[in-house]
Amino acid sequence: MATDDFPFASTHDLLRRTYDAFGAERMFWGTDYTRMHLSWRDCAEMFLRDLDWLKGAEQDAVMGGAIRDWIGWT
Description:
Layout: H1 9-22, H2 40-50, H3 56-71
C-alpha cells in the first residue's frame, strides 16, 4: 500500500522498477478495490495519467492487453 495520498507517488519508483524488470507483457494492472479508500476510476487513472513513462502500446498492454493475450482471449 502507498504511504501517501493519491496519486501515490511513493509507489511510482517501484512500479517503474517492476516494469523495467518484467516489461509491459508481464505487468498486469489490477487493484484490490475492497481495500481502497478512493474510486476504482482513481485507481486506474494513476496508471493512465500519472505514470509519465507508461504510454501507448505499453500502457495498453499493462491495462489489460497483456493479460488478455496471456489467457488467450481474442
